[in-house]
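In this supplementary section we document a worked example of the pipeline. Step one takes a protein sequence of length 244 as its only input; no multiple sequence alignment statistics are reported here. Step two produces a three-dimensional model, which step three serialises into structure tokens for compact storage. The input and output of this example are shown verbatim.
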Amino acid sequence: MARINVTVWNEYRHERHNEQIAKIYPQGIHRTIADFLEKDAEFYVRTAVLDDPEHGLTDEVLASTDVLLWWGHVAHGEVRDDIVEKVRQRVLDGMGIIVLHSGHGSKIFQRLLGTNTGALKWRDDGEKERLWVIDPSHPIVSGLGEYIEVPQEEMYGERFEIPAPDELVFVSWFEGGEVFRSGCCYKRGRGKLFYFRPGHEAFPTYHLPDIQQVIVNAVGWAAPIQSAKASYGRVSPLEYNQPV
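The serialised model returned by step three reads:
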């Protein structure tokens, strides 16, 4: 089986400016995610951050990326519009994308879904989150039980301004009583998109084995499927009806 080329993108701001967050993710959220993905021999993993030239998403990097993971929060507005458009086009052409946690407010997520995806309820009190598996037959939940329990997380609550998912994989419940669509699958052009809610920077969520399993599974699900290239525009007919 051909290896899946994965790029983990992170704005990498919290970890450099907040000592508490730096203790949880000393080399950045992107490096923590890359470290557990690299344990899978089928993945070739690299990282990119906001302050890299071209945000680390050069034409060469994007052209050789099968699945892009995206984590952002405080610097959505600093992401260049031309880079966002390049990422969007790559998704339409077949690249998979996994948007994590506060990436719901990113330009790329809004451009791909076409709604105000930044609109939701939130509360960062470190509440317990329980992610219920809605579709136990879905490949993204392979190897999991009926739910994932996260001891401390930021709460996101409905209403969440997204289009109805093509497939809903997880629904979250929080101690405060809110619920949230936390695992949402979409197809955009030839590409696949998965939004996965957990991952607040102040909590060690990406160190949890079940959360890591979801992300590993999602990379496999989002990877492009080799198929005939679609053609567009005016074409000659393959057959003509002959008069009787």
